[in-house]
C-alpha cells in the first residue's frame, strides 16, 4: 500500500509529490518548519494528508522544545500551532488537526514536558493510522454506488497520495475493485498543477487500475457521449449545509454532470466537514501564485504583462451533489440534517459528547 506520510525515528517522512511521476523519493523532515514548507509548496497536499502532516509536524516541533517553565512550553506550542494554521487556508483537516493536537496538549499539560511530548507523538501517529481506517470504511459505504462495468470520472487527486493511504474518492474506487467489480477511471489532468495527470495517473497505473487521462475541458464532451456513469471527487472543506469546496474545476464538473443526468458524489472524512461554516460562501478559498497559470509544468506559456487569477479551489453548491460519502455513512439531501446526524452518530460511537 502507498504510505504517503509516516513517523519514523523522530522524523516526519513523506512522499515528495512535487517529484512525481518522474521520481519516487521521500522527504525526511527533521524540523517542524520543514513540514510547514512541504505543505506550502505542495510536496504534501490533499486535505487529509495535510491534516496528518500537521499533526505530525506539531508533535515534531513540540518534541524539540526545551522549555524552562510550563508557561514557556505553552507559549512555544501555541506559536507552532499558529504557524501551521497559516500554511494553507482551505483544507479543513489542517485546522481539525491543530484543534485535536491542542486538546491533547491541554489534557496532558499538567503531567510535565516529557509526558506531553510522548503523548503528542502518539496522538499524531494515531491520527495517521485512523485516517487509513477511515478511508477503508468510506470505501465500504461508497462502493455501493459503483456498478460492475462503470466508467468513473474523477478530478484532481483524492487518492492515497491525498491521505495517509488508500484515499477518499480513489478509496471508494479501490474498494469497488476489491469487491471484484470491473471498472474504468477517467481523470482530468487538473490544471494548473496537474494533480490528475501526475498523481492520480501515477497511483492508478501503479495498481493496474484501467484509467484514461483527459484534459479538463474534455469532461463535458465525454458526459454528453454517455461515456461517464458517475463522478466521484474528494473535498477540502464541506460547509454544514453540504456545499463543497474542492479543487478548482469541480464546480464545472458538477454542473455538467447535472445537465447530463449523471450522479455526482463527494467522498470525504467527517474531519473535512466544518460545522462552524453555514454555507459555501463562508469557506476561505486559497489564491496561489500566478506563475502556476503562466507556465505549464515550468515552461512559460503566456506573454509577459498578462494578468492572472489563480484560485486553487471552487465551491459546489449542495444541490448539485447526489450524496456525500463519509466513514459514518452516506449523507443525502437535506444535508443540514443528514450531516448533523452522521456527526452525532460518530460522536456517540467514539464516546465524545
Ligand atoms: O491543492 P491540493 O492538491 O491540496 O488540492 C487537493 C484537492 O482539491 C483534493 O481533491 C481534496 O483535498 C480532497 S483529497 C482526499
Hetero compounds: 5-S-methyl-1-O-phosphono-5-thio-D-ribulose
Q: What is the residue-mean pLDDT, rounded to a whole number?
A: 97
Q: Report the span from N to C terminus.
A: 34 Å
CATH homologous superfamily (4th level) name of the largest domain: Translation initiation factor eif-2b, domain 2
**What is the string of SSEs from the N terminus onward?**
EEEHHHHHEHEHEHEEEHEEHEEEEEH
Query: What is the beta-strand fraction?
Result: 15-25%
What's the level 1 CATH class of the largest domain?
Alpha Beta
Structural class: alpha/beta
Q: Which outline best applies?
A: globular
Number of helices: 11
Task: Provide tags for this entry.
353 residues; alpha/beta; Four Helix Bundle (Hemerythrin (Met), subunit A); Rossmann fold; 2 domains; seven-stranded mixed sheet; four-stranded mixed sheet; 16 strands; 17% strand; binds 5-S-methyl-1-O-phosphono-5-thio-D-ribulose
Amino acid at each position: 500500500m502507498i504510505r504517503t506520510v509516516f513517523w519514523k525515528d523522530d522524523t516526519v517522512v513523506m512522499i515528495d509529490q512535487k517529484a512525481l511521476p518522474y521520481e519516487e523519493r521521500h522527504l525526511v523532515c527533521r524540523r517542524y518548519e520543514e513540514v510547514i514548507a512541504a505543505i506550502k509548496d505542495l510536496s504534501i497536499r490533499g486535505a487529509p494528508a495535510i491534516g496528518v502532516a500537521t499533526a505530525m509536524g506539531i508533535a515534531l516541533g513540540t518534541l524539540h522544545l526545551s522549555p524552562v517553565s510550563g508557561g514557556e512550553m505553552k507559549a512555544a506550542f501555541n506559536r507552532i500551532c499558529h504557524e501551521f494554521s497559516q500554511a494553507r487556508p482551505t483544507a479543513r483537516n489542517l485546522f481539525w488537526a491543530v484543534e485535536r493536537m491542542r486538546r491533547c496538549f491541554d489534557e496532558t499539560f499538567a503531567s510535565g514536558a516529557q509526558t506531553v511530548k510522548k503523548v503528542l507523538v502518539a496522538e499524531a501517529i494515531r491520527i495517521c493510522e485512523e485516517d487509513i481506517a477511515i478511508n477503508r470504511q468510506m470505501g465500504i459505504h461508497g462502493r455501493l454506488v459503483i456498478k460492475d462495468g462503470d466508467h468513473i470520472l474523477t478530478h484532481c487527486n483524492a487518492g492515497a497520495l491525498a491521505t495517509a493511504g488508500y484515499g477518499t474518492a480513489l478509496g471508494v474506487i479501490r474498494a469497488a475493485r476489491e469487491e471484484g467489480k470491473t471498472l474504468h477511471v477517467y481523470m482530468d489532468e487538473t490544471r494548473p498543477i496537474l494533480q490528475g495527470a501526475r498523481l492520480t495517473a501515477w497511483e492508478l497505473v501503479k495498481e493496474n487500475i484501467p484509467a484514461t487521462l483527459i484534459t479538463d475541458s474534455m469532461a463535458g464532451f465525454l458526459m454528453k457521449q454517455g461515456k461517464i456513469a458517475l463522478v466521484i471527487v474528494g473535498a477540502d472543506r464541506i460547509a454544514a449545509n453540504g456545499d463543497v469546496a474542492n479543487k478548482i474545476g469541480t464546480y464545472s464538473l458538477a454542473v455538467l454532470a447535472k445537465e447530463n443526468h449523471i450522479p455526482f458524489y463527494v467522498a470525504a472524512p467527517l474531519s473535512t466537514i466544518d460545522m462552524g461554516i453555514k454555507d459555501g460562501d463562508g469557506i476561505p478559498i486559497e489564491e496561489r501564485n500566478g506563475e502556476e497559470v503562466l507556465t505549464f509544468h515550468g515552461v512559460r506559456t503566456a506573454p509577459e504583462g498578462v494578468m492572472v487569477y489563480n484560485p486553487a479551489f471552487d465551491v459546489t453548491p449542495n444541490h448539485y451533489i447526489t450524496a456525500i460519502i463519509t466513514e459514518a455513512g452516506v449523507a443525502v439531501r437535506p444535508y443540514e440534517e443528514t450531516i448533523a446526524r452522521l456527526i452525532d452518530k460518530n460522536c456517540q460511537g467514539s464516546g465524545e459528547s
